Amino acid sequence: TDLEVTHWWTSGGEAAAVAEFAKAFDATGHKWIDGAIAGSGGTARPIMISRITGGDPMGATQFNHGRQAEELVEAGLMRDLTDIAEANNWKEVVHPASLLDSCTLDGKIYCVPVNIHSQQWLWLSHKAFEDAGVPVPTNWDEFVAAAPKLEEAGKIPLAMGQQPWQTSLAFQVLVVALAGQDAYNKIYGDKDAEVAASPELAKVFEAADQARSMAAKSNVQDWNQATNMVITGQAGGQIMGDWAQGEFQVAGQVAGEDYSCLPGLGVNEVIQTGGDAFYFPVLADEEKSAAQADLAALMLSPEVQVAFNLKKGSLPVRGDVDLDAANDCMKKGLDILAKGNIIQSPDQLMSADSLTRVNDLFVEFFNNTSITAEDAQKRFVDIVASAD
Amino acid sequence: MEEARRPNQLFRNLNAKFAAIPMVLTALVVFVGGTIWTIVYSFTDSRLLPRENFVGLAQYERLWSSSKWLISIQNLFIYGVCLLIFSLVIGFILAALLDQKIRFENTFRTIFLYPFALSFIVTGLVWQWILNPQFGIEGVVRSWGWTSFSFDPLYNADIVIYGILIAAVWQSTGLIMCLMLAGLRGIDEDIWKAARVDGIPMWKTYLFIVIPMMRPVFITTLVIIASGIVRVYDLVVAQTGGGPGIASEVPAKYVYDAMFLSQNLGQGFAGSTMMLLSVLIVLIPWAYLEFGGKKRG
Amino acid sequence: MAELTLNYAQGDAATRADALAGPAGPKPRRALSRRNIFIYGTLIVVSMYYLLPLYVMIVTSLKGMPEIRMGNIFSPPVEITFEPWVKAWAQACTGLNCEGLSRGFWNSVRITVPSVVLSIAIASINGYALANWRFKGADIFFTILIFGAFIPYQVMLYPIVILLREMGLYGGLYGLILVHSIFGMPILTLLFRNYFTSLPEELFKAARVDGAGFWGIYFKIMLPMSLPIFVVAIILQVTGIWNDFLFGVVYTRPDYYPMTVQLNNIVNSVQGVKEYNVNMAATLLTGLVPLVVYFVSGKLFVRGIAAGAVKG
Amino acid sequence: MPSVVVRDVSLNFGSVEVLKSLNLEVGRGEFLVLLGPSGCGKSTLLNCIAGLLDVSQGQIFINERNVTWDEPKDRGIGMVFQSYALYPQMTVEGNLSFGLKNARLPKDEIATRIARAAEILQIEPLLKRKPLALSGGQRQRVAIGRALVRDVDVFLFDEPLSNLDAKLRSELRVEIKRLHQKLENTMIYVTHDQIEAMTLADRIAVMRGGIIQQLDTPQAIYSRPVNRFVAGFIGSPGMNFIEGEVVGGAAPAFDAGGIKVPLDRYEFGDGGARGGKAVFGVRPEHVALGDAAAAMPCQYDVEVEIVEPMGSDTLVWGKFAGQNLSFRVETERAVSVGDRVRIGFDPGRASLFDADGGERI
Amino acid sequence: MPSVVVRDVSLNFGSVEVLKSLNLEVGRGEFLVLLGPSGCGKSTLLNCIAGLLDVSQGQIFINERNVTWDEPKDRGIGMVFQSYALYPQMTVEGNLSFGLKNARLPKDEIATRIARAAEILQIEPLLKRKPLALSGGQRQRVAIGRALVRDVDVFLFDEPLSNLDAKLRSELRVEIKRLHQKLENTMIYVTHDQIEAMTLADRIAVMRGGIIQQLDTPQAIYSRPVNRFVAGFIGSPGMNFIEGEVVGGAAPAFDAGGIKVPLDRYEFGDGGARGGKAVFGVRPEHVALGDAAAAMPCQYDVEVEIVEPMGSDTLVWGKFAGQNLSFRVETERAVSVGDRVRIGFDPGRASLFDADGGERI
Ligand SMILES: Nc1ncnc2c1ncn2[C@@H]1O[C@H](COP(=O)(O)OP(=O)(O)OP(=O)(O)O)[C@@H](O)[C@H]1O
Ligand SMILES: Nc1ncnc2c1ncn2[C@@H]1O[C@H](COP(=O)(O)OP(=O)(O)OP(=O)(O)O)[C@@H](O)[C@H]1O
Ligand SMILES: [Mg+2]
Ligand SMILES: [Mg+2]
């Protein structure tokens, strides 16, 4: 049976990873119809939502799991996967368990988490630091300290794509890494405005201020172009999620030799457990429904998880898979995961609406040097106070 | 003499009425219906899906306290005014030049018009590239040795909207020029002769006589440009995605992002409603002048 | 000119001969007069602004990636390669599909042709009804329609999703064709209305006396006379629909995705370095159809605009 | 047995009343001309009769059938327009046959009718051409042909000759006259050229502002116009108007700045010879000069100011009681500017109008 | 001392030769009318004189100055257009003063000139209005005013009255005539209306196909046209043309289908009375009826076919030698269709043309 799957994974590493899903699915006798929409979730999501609400849903669709699809589920447009989950014992295998929680509404499971994406990484180019004659930093503060040297050597200290989501990502990372896990949970989870106004957060905003001056000369658009600057040694480092790993791999670089990665910016070694999930809209066609069930089960099967996540550079959602092939950075991630130093992603904690406002603020701050760190924090407090 | 019964008015011109059904339906269902629907739901707190949970003016309060929206409005204003002025002025000057009985008129006209055939995605992409400081004009000039040269409108938040304008002017003046050219060709030949006999210099003839005579052309042109301005979206997305930061946000993008990115339909609808309102404010006086004036005249 | 003054009173043959030596025939015009330099100079400079992007696109699409990375975008290709074109057309990948633009081309044709035909058919009939068969309320609907021209597409996205869903047309080709017809209607109707208004009303009256009805007059009298405005409408619609991305992607499923969606995918799926040459080739390929339509019918376009847009 | 009856017809465009409760009867076979200045509603009236405009009030009968609500094609009329209104993309033959094909007439019937019309109008050699390849006069002939083939009783002409030059105009005028004599059907003809009206009409309806001012034979309108407007509109060169006063009484006279014109030979209307301000109208061709003047009841001396030779005769302008007066003399008679000449006219052929309303006294 | 001289002027539009080596001299203070059918090159010639078109060959002198290469504004001409060509968004005053302001005339000079022009043309009350709020006649007056304020020696008119209706046309015609008498400057006036030409002109140049056919006083053109084209173009109603043969010899005569017209009173041209096919032309007003006919050298009986009353007189159509013949009778004389009447004319006032070339014999 043909099943159309929409997603926005179109970059090199991503596409290779998707191919793993497709290969496995085709092997079951079904056919994966690829509905890739390039750009980002921002371009693709409206199309997916329109299709689902317009009554012409696809067979399966990617969303960031969390609250993005909440209302579609509430409206009864998404298929209940509880039976499949029980049959395959997802409750046991999915690790950390919080991943499945975000797929659960009123006790029913509606999505398949496929990977864990952690954003809290600082990627560093060994070549750049060699050229500048400074040792490769091991945490954020050293990185900041090394920045002037890098600049002298004609490098851009911090690579940063112009797309707004990259800026806001960097900011969230700074919050978690510099203010700590508790503050993060209080702010994003409990919407605690007092914490948002605290001196810890002030430090975060100062760091963001430094970040923006370090990235001032970076003028590429896409995240992978920024990554490419790190790969080629034009830039010292980049704050980016673990998917950047895929790019290093495609470029044939070796972790620890050509580049290093600092989870939690080397300050607070936490990673977030957000990631991508697949949702399955309700379909009338019996055969397709059956195919949906097959695909859902297949996505969580150990082999597919390994194959997929290796290509994607993300962490598998099963605790029980064997990742010998994993590289240095991935292993660091797995370690942290095992230690339980995990946080939920903002998507899971905050409504898309409030999150957009927070992100907009970061983006505005980052690009408008006339906004001081104090101003930005004040506005941040206001947003957190009214968030849901 | 026999008397004839007056036929039912409803059935007169039945075919004409029948033929107008698509238009009537479009006007009523899509434009009016869609507008009303949008306005109604702008008073709700609809998120991903529309729902009838009315919250009064909350969405509007939030809209007007959002700096992103304010920047959008400001950008639209700058963009609109500049595009209007530039495309009208350039379009008219080009049309006037082409109207001088020159050689290669067809070639020049085609050159000016071809960008109109390209989509905004294409336009945005090409200009993004030409304006890219690394590869584009800035890079090239610097490679010539003028290393302090700086021309990076798309990467400088203060002037990014003008960078977008460069592409917009490039894309839209061709059509404006065509409209103006058509208008110029419609001017009575004798007016030109009269002005020459009166010894009025060419530029004065254009400025004081011809342009005022082209009122209908300017109105049509204005409608076309203005409708394009309000809807500007693709160009911004293709060139900057609203960046750097939110420096090049425009209302249409705000609305789109609100509806689909932040999944807050109510907010998006509130933005839409404000846009529609501004369109109405511009259009109603115009419609009054155009249609109301004629009946009296 | 004083020395050229004639004096007929003297009737002197010598003065007459003098006079004959004066200016005669056409006023001599230097090819490089200041006026010409100004006109052609301006036109050429402006042409450069307009041609620059096209030049960059063509030149870049013929370069290899290494050359792009090194050189400047304005320098002509050292080594001409058509590989980017081939790649853009047939090999570029989006997700799992590596068929390049070719996948979308026929979809674009399938979408554009019926949409253009339908939207022009509807709009021309509307324009005709509005211009010649004014019925009560016609002006109101027309005003609403013009208002519709200003509504940002994004705003109407959602209501139309609902509309199409209720009509059961969502996701198919017909729904998309309908959407294109709806959004083409305002400007096209305006053009057609103005054009038909500019045709002599007596023609219409004569046809009515001759017993032709609404459709008879439309098909036999009006249509054969409206070539210029049809050309304008076709150009506008072909350009608009061919270049459309938003509707194509929102209102159909992937089987029908037009070329622009592929273009967007190629351009936006960055794999490491942006392959500018492929992007430019893809861009040119996508723009080719409207460009050809333009070059072929440019002259009629101005004429049609003159007839349809300027009057009224 | 009237052929066309217009009863109490009014027509408004929005709030503008273009036709005001208008009545008109046209006899069978009559040639009626609607004459009036631009914008007086002539075309509007014609369009109402043709059914191209819906009347706001009133009724229209054609051949004793109430056609007020009928479609144009069902009214039994043919119409000819000023701009010819030929279908540009069809040949002459196509133009002629279009209406017949619409009426689903048999092929041979169509052919016969076209052949007949083409013969009458002498456009046989043009049948295969398109209108663009015809001269103005030929086009108008084809337009007439298009009405002709419809084989109707009533022909409506809306300024058919206005777009032609003077020479063609007078030629086609004669042709239309011949056509009418041959076909003997009813014709309603709109023009603002009074020469056309005078030469063609059995009766003329002079219109102004949507109201028929006078409906009468050309001769009656020429010699006894009901008001100053009609008097001025008819006749070329136009009637001379002299302002002054009527002195009533037993020997009524017209007093213009001291110069007295006896009115004993003037036929007063119903109101009789009231005194008061009035306008005295006399046509240039009724002012005699020289010997002929001597035979006239009134004689005056005037100084020649302008001489306008028109070929066949000459129009001379002078001052009478300080006001412009023109008169027509034969070309042979040498009159030059500055001459003092003796003129004479017969008040019995003149007209007197009220100074205010302009009504004939 | 000619005011305007056109010497050997040719003009081509691409390969079309519109003016063919044309020569023309216009005397100071003369009123010259260029008359001809549409498309004959009248406007083109006028535009050449005005400097609005570059001549292809030849020279143009105005006031004895070679202006062939001068700009229009430097030629000392004023021009009035058929379509008025008023600047629509300026008031009448603005229209009049715009050119003067551009010439940087002092303010009070401008005011004086406008006041004078407005007085002459009686447009003082209109000065503050815009052209759209004026009637056709008023507009044309303003257009004339615009030429007037330029204070030039030569006025060029391009069919200034064609867009006006018949009545206004004849009124304004008189005004232009008065204006010329008052200003006494040179006027070149284009028209295709022969009545205008006859009444206004000191001399008429009849053009066809870019060539001046005849340049003479109206009277001469009327009575001795050099060819059939001129004869047919001048005079309204037009000249009657009877085809037949000239029988030469001692007693030359014209033979039309057996009916003989003696030509002993006819003044032959240089070629004398050659025999051969010819066309005999006689004007309707030179054909007499009844008693007057009896006094004429030639008399014939004709049957009346059409009667066209024109108010002042009546045009009657009959057949002469099987060909149409019209003649003018006074309105008083009752003539009706079908009557047989006796007509007479004087061959001495007729014209004879070559059947082929159309030249006067
Ligand atoms: N469609 C219309 N809407 C409003 N007013 C109109 C319309 N058609 C005509 N009129 C007005 O009606 C009046 C009479 O017009 P009509 O065309 O009958 O005049 P006319 O006598 O035929 O003039 P002309 O000699 O110029 O043809 C005019 O004042 C005109 O402005
Ligand atoms: N710009 C032009 N290009 C080519 N041919 C032209 C142009 N202007 C005029 N002609 C041609 O020159 C000839 C003379 O034109 P012109 O306007 O002088 O005629 P006219 O005597 O003024 O006619 P009308 O009485 O219609 O005004 C016409 O045959 C016309 O087709
Ligand atoms: Mg009319
Ligand atoms: Mg002309």
TrEMBL record, chain B:
Record-linked SUPFAM superfamilies: MetI-like
One of the Pfam families matching this protein, by short name: BPD_transp_1
Biological processes annotated in GO: transmembrane transport
UniProt cross-references to PROSITE patterns, sorted A to Z: ABC_TM1
Membrane topology: Multi-pass membrane protein
Protein name, as recorded: Sugar ABC transporter permease
TM ranges: 20-43, 76-98, 110-130, 159-184, 205-230, 269-289
Top-level taxonomic group: Bacteria
Domain ABC transmembrane type-1, residue spans: 73-286
Swiss-Prot/TrEMBL keywords: Cell membrane, Membrane, Transmembrane, Transmembrane helix, Transport
Family of the protein in this entry: Belongs to the binding-protein-dependent transport system permease family.
Gene3D superfamilies the record matches: MetI-like
Any GO CC annotation of this UniProt entry: plasma membrane
Cellular location(s): Cell membrane
TrEMBL record, chain C:
Annotated localization: Cell membrane
Gene Ontology CC annotations of this record: plasma membrane
Membrane topology reported for the UniProt record: Multi-pass membrane protein
PROSITE patterns given in the database record: ABC_TM1
Principal localisation: membrane
Record carries keyword Repeat: no
Keywords: Membrane, Transmembrane, Transmembrane helix, Transport
Classification via InterPro entries: MetI-like, MetI-like_sf
Superkingdom, taxonomy of origin: Bacteria
UniProt domain ABC transmembrane type-1: residue ranges: 105-297
Membrane spanning stretches: 37-58, 111-131, 140-161, 173-196, 217-242, 278-296
GO BP terms, alphabetized: transmembrane transport
Pfam families according to UniProt: BPD_transp_1
Transmembrane helix in keyword set: yes
Family statement: Belongs to the binding-protein-dependent transport system permease family.
Protein name, UniProt field: Carbohydrate ABC transporter permease
Organism per entry: Neoaquamicrobium microcysteis
TrEMBL record, chains D, E:
Places the protein is found: Cell inner membrane
PANTHER family: ABC TRANSPORTER ATP-BINDING PROTEIN (PTHR43875:SF14), MALTODEXTRIN IMPORT ATP-BINDING PROTEIN MSMX (PTHR43875)
Pfam families associated with the record: ABC_tran (PF00005), OB_MalK (PF17912)
Membrane topology: Peripheral membrane protein
Primary location: membrane
UniProt xrefs under SMART domains: AAA
UniProt entry keywords in alphabetical sequence: ATP-binding, Nucleotide-binding, Transport
GO terms assigned for molecular function: ABC-type transporter activity; ATP binding; ATP hydrolysis activity
Protein name as it appears in the record: ABC transporter ATP-binding protein
GO biological process, one term: carbohydrate transport
InterPro entries per the UniProt record, alphabetical: AAA+_ATPase (IPR003593), ABC_transporter-like_ATP-bd (IPR003439), ABC_transporter-like_CS (IPR017871), ABC_transpr_MalK-like (IPR015855), ABC_transpr_MalK/UgpC-like (IPR047641), Mo/tungstate-bd_C_term_dom (IPR008995), NA-bd_OB-fold (IPR012340), OB_MalK-like (IPR040582)
SUPFAM superfamilies, alphabetized: MOP-like (SSF50331), P-loop containing nucleoside triphosphate hydrolases (SSF52540)
Species per Swiss-Prot/TrEMBL record: Neoaquamicrobium microcysteis
GO CC annotation terms, alphabetical: ATP-binding cassette (ABC) transporter complex, substrate-binding subunit-containing
Entry keyword annotation includes ATP-binding: yes
Family: Belongs to the ABC transporter superfamily.
The ABC transporter domain, residue ranges: 4-234
